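Job type: complex structure
Entries:
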Amino acid sequence: MKPPEPGTWRRTSPLAILFFLGKLFRDIAKNAWQSFAPIAALLIASSGNIMDRLMIGAVVALILVIVASVLRYWFFRFRITEDSVLIREGVVKKKQLDIKFDRIQGINVEQNIVYRYLDLVTVSFDTAGSSGDEGNLPAVPKAFAEALREKIGRPLGRACAVDSTENIADSEPLLTLDWRDMIRIGLSDTRVLLILALLSPLLDRLGDEADTVISRAINSATQGAMQFGVVGGVPLFVAIGIGVILSFALVSIAAAFLRYHDFTLHLDGSTLRSRGGLLTRHEVSMDLGKIQTLRLRQGIILRGFARFQMTARQARSSHKNDSSKNFTIPVVTQELATSLRRRFLQQEGRGLVQIPTSSHFNAISKYSMRIPVLVNVLIPMLVTAITYSIEGDLATLLFLLWIPMSLLHIFKTWQHAGFHFTDDGLVRRSGTFGYRTVALLYRKVQRVTVSRSPLQRRKGLATLRVYMASGSVRIPYIEHELALQLRDVILYKVESSQKAWH
Amino acid sequence: MFQNPEIALEDLPGMEDLAWQNLHPDFVRRMQVEHALIALAPLAGVAVLSVLLHIPLLQTVLLWALAIGFAIVFVSWPRISVPRRGYVVRDKDIVFRSGVIWQSVTAIPYNRIQHVETSNTPLDRKFDVATLQLFTAGGSGGDLKIDGLGAEVAEQLRIYILGKVGVSIETA
């Protein structure tokens, strides 16, 4: 691989037009209302019947978009200098983007199906700055991307004894995912659960109806033949419900295949790298030193599969709550999660346990349940009392069902909350029916707050909130003494640390 | 408890006997002026209502009582809340406390500060106070705002902290 020669302005391959097309379509979809308003105006202004107008409108729009993409390609130039990437683009509004190598947190590579045949990739730079300014190099040769990565990676490279000749392709992958994992990813997608939740009241009602129908059927068993049609209708409803869920699950599994097919995870020196995708290949990389928090998530379904989702978060830009700076490993086993955590946090992470069922976790105070319990018991009672006194309808007593449900929720949330710490870092556990754990190292902390509500002051408790560059981690209702000690240790670690936090 | 190989927990500098610095003495009045201006809105609303609409006397009196009661509490609130705010400038970090009902103490180490900003509104200038804002990485809630510092103190702090940030920055 020859390093990219510095100093010359280059154009990307004409196939970058595809990239700009895709981007334009995405922008249009995002701002659908504004984009379609002029088209609608055009349609109304032109003569002819509706179908003709629609056709003309579509053709005009398509031509406009293609011309715009070609122009964008034509005006796109980039240049790699000794220490930065320079990008000049824009047809009407010129944009100049200079990204210094040391601001680049990661280089991500995407390869759609056309590019794959031609060995081209789209490179995107992950920078710590505002996410709107992030640069892309569409349709550049893959070898160029590799060379660029090496060029940028070297000055960033932290002290790690790794043969520079070692190629990622040769190194043993830490993880590969097969079709069974795709099914796990697809089924554990929270959106499936959401649909289930949305449908469940409907299913309940179907169940009730089925009950009445069945009892009626039994009562009039002699007229069995007549009732048969009605009874046959209910299973049809149920079948449709199940069919909807199944098809959502299938779509979700298909999405998992699209995004994660042939997923591999490599640790290349201190750079974590993942590849995967069926049509478009995504290659994401993150420097281990940039990890701010390490998260494990296990919803109900993943719990059934005994798997976790692991996410490494790096510093995010100050404007948006963007998830593009996350490095996600969609399914891992407990053993792998442990060994990955060891590799990611290295020496400093020793002793930290992230598996939620571990006995290392300390519970938070039971007083954390007091206010939620009061709110969720008193308010439904009040509402019931008022509506009952007005309506006098016994059905209003159904409001009271809220109480046991919320009590279960509050208790589960308390039960799943926990924390555990060592000299160098801490882990917080949360979740209601599933689990989430977040591990962090003290020396990467940005700011610490200890706060106390009146109840906490009376009971000698406090809430510790630790702000990381990737967001904050809150440990509520712990001993005040302990919160103060943890804060002092964190401050000591931050203030005496000589290592870069990012 | 901790087994800290480098330094024993008891030896860690705690915050038990910090000498909290108060905000500028005029800041209470400055906040009261601001709150008084804000409280004028509901009072004006009630005034308009009682003139334009023909509300029975009892309701009018109630409305006025409510609006005035709110205004009194709102305007006197800074007398309670401002004295409970304070800060301590230490060698390696700055500590800020605030809150009457929910009390919190925040510490920001200098070597995590990205940039420092001082600002003042026309009202601030009238009372010769300023706001110091310290930004750390990580966006939402990642910054600490200390308002009601004396204008001179805010400027001194800004320069002092910038100097500290410069010293402790690691050359990446």
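Summary: The longest helix of chain B spans residues 27-52. Residues 18-23+86-168 of chain B form a domain with the PH-domain like fold (CATH 2.30.29.210).
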